[in-house]
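Tutorial, part two.
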Amino acid sequence: MRYIIIGAGAVGGAVGGRLAQAGHEVVLVARGGHLAALRENGLRLRVPDGDLVLRPATAAGPADLGPLRADDVLVLAVKTQDATAALDTWGPADVEGGGSAAERLPLLCAQNGVESRRQALRRFRHVYGVCVWLPATFVEPGVVSAPGAPLTGILSLGRRPHGIDATARAIAADFERARFEMPLVADVARWEYAKLLGNLVNALEALCGPLGGDDDVLELFGRVRDEGRAALDAAGIAYASEEEQAAARGRKVDPVPLDGRVREGGSSWQSLSRATGTIEADYLNGEIALLGRLHAVPTPLNELLQHLANRFAREHRPPGSLPVAELLRLADEAVAATTGTR
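Running the prediction step on this input gives:
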């Protein structure tokens, strides 16, 4: 199988790089300065066992490849706010022997949140969810850091809406030869929603920096996550428990310092760091806000984080530049406005 990584950023670059290192045929799809750097210098993948320079094929889109192959696997790794454009671009692509990618090829959604899976199922027949546990950083064109050890990541895989098939088994076998664990789970959505609850911290981290040991920020995150659980419970959506997640991960993907430096921030922090102008908060905290509105559950803290993260992205504010005291004040005001106590 050939793996076409649509969005060779942090997760996509780490996945594509490790697959290429293991001898699998890979195409890295990127744009702008990142694509130029990949074409000129290859992918520099920084991992605990050293810096790798890998030179898989690259593409800006399907036109660079001609008709796709019947054995191609599409791995969607763009941020969710970019998923619609990517799906619209790749879905109609011709496949050798007839038909389109949307009709014939498997599509793996390796992203935070859950919305891209719904978008994909509108267009593609064969959609697979991937619950991504893969610490990785992309802030410099052509360079991706993946500090996890002994494994680079754990990527739980299952068909959407549910099930496991022969294609999933073949893909998992390839990934497990490339420094990943890929458990096959028939109820992958249950793991994706659990990951969503953890990803509610992303906006908080982007605004104020890594949580560290600040008790006030940790307490605020606990309240943000409680809103998330209440919204999922009201919607009747199942999610894996924290104990299940901890048991599945164990000490398999522990981030280690690379060149003496620890990983600075997650995906939303990286979006602000690269000044992309967009951020995925609408599909993380915004997913909880949506469920809250649909099921009459107040979610003022998630709505606040969604609003602030979007504003920071639009204004190209640097990550970590909101004082904690200011965020706590705004959080108290948001809750008071919802409860009518101010």
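The radius of gyration is 20 Å. In part three we will examine how such features are distributed along the chain.
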